[in-house]
Design brief:
Length: 252
C-alpha cells in the first residue's frame, strides 16, 4: 500500500514537472534586429553608469523586436584588485575581434557596439536610435529544455556557412564589490551574459540551420533570457539577431 502511494505521488510530480516545461519559440522580423553589446567590468569605475543605463532597456517597448541587448563582462581588469565573477577571456577576445576587423577603434570599457559598429555617442547622447530599415531575413529559434534549433532564411542568399552565436542572459543580479575601483559598492546588473557558445550552421539551398545544446551558465539568476545572432565566419558583426525571455525553461 505504501509502495503504491509513493509511486502514485512520484507520477504526480513527474507529470507536473512535464506540464510546467515550456518550449520557447522566438522569431525575428524581416528587417535587421540590432544587437547592442556592452563590454563592461565590475573592476572598472566608469562602468556602473553604463550598466544602469542598459538596465533601463528592460522596459523599452522595442526590446527583442528591434534591439537585443547583451552585456559581456571582460576579465582584463581583474588584475587591479577585484575578480569579476561574470567575466570570461572569451568576451574580451570577442571585443578584440571587433578591433581587428576595424569595427571599433580600440578596446576599452565601458564600450558599446551597436549592430556591429562602435557606438561612442552613448557618452554624449545616450539615446538609442535603432534603424531597422535594412532587410536581413527571418531568424527562428526554438528552445526545448537544454536543446535548441535555429533556422535562418536571409533576404539575399549568403554563400557558405554562418556562425550561430547563443548567449544566456541573467537579470536581477547584484554584487557586493569588496576591492578594486568599485570597492565598497553594490553593483546591479541585467542582460549579463552568463553562458555563451557558437556553432557553424548547415546550409541547404538558401536556408541556414543549426541544432545545439544551450551553453552552461556560470551563475544562476532570478530571471533569464536568451539572445542568438548570426555572423560571417571571421567577422563578429551580426547579420541578424533574435532574443526573448526564457520563462518556464530550466537552464543549467
Amino acid at each position: 500500500m505504501y509502495v503504491r502511494i509513493g509511486l502514485f505521488l512520484s507520477l504526480i510530480v513527474t507529470c507536473a514537472a512535464a506540464a510546467g516545461a515550456q518550449t520557447v519559440h522566438l522569431e525575428s522580423p524581416g528587417p535587421r534586429v540590432s544587437l547592442l553589446e556592452l563590454y563592461t567590468s565590475e573592476g572598472c569605475s566608469s562602468c556602473p553608469p553604463a550598466d544602469r543605463w542598459l538596465s533601463t532597456l528592460r522596459d523599452d517597448p522595442r526590446l527583442w523586436r528591434e534591439v537585443v541587448p547583451v552585456a559581456f563582462h571582460v576579465d582584463y581588469w581583474d588584475y587591479i584588485g577585484w575578480k569579476d565573477r561574470f567575466a570570461s577571456p572569451v568576451y574580451g577576445n570577442r571585443q578584440r575581434d571587433y578591433a581587428r576587423n576595424r569595427h571599433v577603434g580600440t578596446v576599452y570599457t565601458p564600450g558599446f557596439v551597436l549592430a556591429g559598429k562602435e557606438w561612442r555617442s552613448w557618452f554624449s547622447r545616450p539615446i538609442l536610435d535603432v534603424k531597422n530599415t535594412i532587410a536581413a531575413g527571418k531568424l527562428e529559434l526554438k528552445v526545448d529544455g537544454q536543446q535548441a534549433q535555429a533556422s535562418f532564411t536571409p533576404s539575399k542568399p549568403i554563400d557558405g556557412a554562418l556562425e550561430m552565436h547563443v548567449a544566456i542572459l541573467g537579470f536581477g543580479l547584484s554584487s557586493d564589490v569588496r576591492a578594486g575601483e568599485n570597492g565598497g559598492r553594490t553593483l546591479k546588473h541585467d542582460f549579463v551574459v552568463l553562458g555563451y557558445s557558437n556553432v557553424t550552421t548547415d546550409k541547404k539551398d538558401a536556408m541556414h540551420t543549426a541544432s545545439f545544446s544551450l551553453p552552461t551558465v556560470k551563475v544562476d539568476a532570478p530571471r533569464k533570457a536568451i539572445a542568438a545572432w548570426l555572423s560571417v565566419p571571421g567577422d563578429p558583426a551580426p547579420v541578424q539577431a533574435v532574443g526573448g525571455w526564457l520563462e518556464g525553461v530550466s537552464v543549467q
